[in-house]
Write a structure and sequence with these properties.
By secondary structure, the chain is of the alpha/beta class. The protein contains 13 helices and twelve strands. The protein folds into two domains: 173 residues, Rossmann fold (3-Layer(aba) Sandwich), CATH 3.40.50.10490; 160 residues, Rossmann fold, CATH 3.40.50.
């Protein structure tokens, strides 16, 4: 049996760094110098808000909303300076209520800018007069034309044309399912949203929009520094990563679980893996959410399934429950956690009566502060790098396009 192509994984890591440092960050800094983020932060602070997107962009939007609530405090309570921080919503939340025109802001995320449902929301905002910010890589897209403010997130390669019905093309098997970059746009949009949250928190403290914009840029720079750090540390966990890649290459039924912000990173990684041969018949991959199956994992974990649980501190009740379900159901358990839990992991496994995992991958994060954010970024990049290597391993990718695009063709 041939060896798992670790060098392809490292190549993907190199490409990611090239995009972040050479293309994405310069574009973001240029927009900051033009004062774009000062205005966006000022128009976002203290307003009822929300975000929306579909597919991977939708995951970024959900994560943005969750962090605005959890980190910035937008849950309908007063801030440290006594001002109200209204609730934030993902636009498909069942509890969403009316958005007052002059007191609301929406973020719409679509790389192409032509995703039909996002265009409908953009048109509605324009008609109702609701302030909205568009994130897109297409300067002349419909949502940018309608937007009050827009953030340009560059992508790696220019498309000759943009297919307007992505969903039908993907169902037909004709739409490119995987971009090796993991998709560069969503990577940039994700880091930008993390920066905006930090910029908003800064604005709460100082009411200084210039400083808030600078804080945002510093936050994005820190995230990029962590990705560089993570890539350098990959060799320290090389054997575990290669073994993990071989497991995912052979697995027939994979189930994944994480909670909180970690769920977004895991779902993005799962999206990459889904296109490595999990066609939904004899090979399946799925995410077990705490709100999707009743009791966590109750009917979805079976004997010999490969169950992957991602948890930075092993304190999440959902992650613990899934680990126990995997143990009780004789499934194969794989754990991704942070290096800081290594000394106490065995005690926690014993405490919660969880069998010894088949493999534990300890992700490095020695950069101070923001440990949970760095762990989530590490999880996402780990899966996207491994997915790129699996394509090479299984002969799905074309050698001449491995740097930029992986296209699955129909015979």
């Amino acid at each position: 049996m041939k060896e798992f192509p670790y060098e392809t994984l490292k190549l993907e890591a190199e490409v990611r760094e090239t995009y972040l440092n050479g293309i994405f960050f310069p574009a973001i800094k240029k927009q900051a110098e033009e004062g774009i983020f000062e205005e966006i932060i000022e128009k976002t602070a203290y307003r009822k808000g929300g975000a929306y997107g579909k597919g991977r962009s939708g995951l970024v939007a959900r994560d943005f909303v969750n962090r605005m609530k959890k980190k910035a405090g937008y849950v309908g309570e007063r801030s440290i300076n006594g001002k109200m921080l209204p609730m934030w919503y993902f636009l498909e939340d069942p509890t969403i209520t009316k958005f007052p025109v002059k007191e609301s802001v929406l973020y719409l995320i679509s790389g192409s800018g032509f995703t039909q449902s996002v265009v409908h929301v953009a048109t509605g905002c324009l008609q109702l007069g609701i302030h909205f910010v568009a994130m897109s890589y297409t300067p002349r897209s419909h949502i940018i034309k309608c937007a009050d403010n827009h953030i340009y997130i560059p992508k790696k390669m220019e498309e000759q044309y943009i297919p307007h019905n992505h969903l039908l093309l993907q169902l037909a098997g004709k739409h490119r399912p995987v971009d090796v970059m993991g998709n560069s746009f969503e990577t940039g949009a994700h880091l930008t949203s993390l920066g905006i949250v930090d910029g908003i928190i800064s604005y709460h403290k100082t009411e200084d929009k210039v400083q808030a914009s600078e804080t945002m840029i510093e936050s994005i720079s820190e995230s990029i520094s962590y990705v560089e750090h993570f890539n350098k540390k990959l060799d320290e966990i090389k054997e575990d990563v290669m073994l993990f890649g071989e497991v995912l290459t052979k697995a027939d039924h994979v189930r994944m679980a994480a909670s909180g912000e970690g769920a977004t990173s895991l779902k993005m990684g799962m999206n990459r893996l889904a296109h490595t041969g999990f066609e939904g018949f004899e090979r399946t991959i799925d995410f077990i959410g705490s709100d999707e199956y009743g009791p966590p994992g109750y009917a979805d974990i079976k004997k010999d399934y490969d169950v992957i649980v991602s948890t930075s501190s092993f304190r999440s009740s959902h992650s613990i429950a899934i680990c126990r379900e995997a143990s009780n159901g004789d499934a194969k358990l794989y754990l991704i956690t942070s290096r800081s839990t290594e000394n106490e992991l065995q005690d926690k496994l014993d405490k919660y009566k969880i069998k010894q995992p088949e493999l534990v991958i300890y992700l490095p994060f020695s950069l101070p502060g923001r440990e949970e954010r760095f762990f989530d970024l590490g999880v996402r990049h780990l899966f996207e790098y491994v997915a790129a290597a699996i394509f090479e391993y299984k002969g799905i990718s074309k050698e001449e396009t491995v740097w930029w695009h992986i296209q699955k063709e129909i015979e």
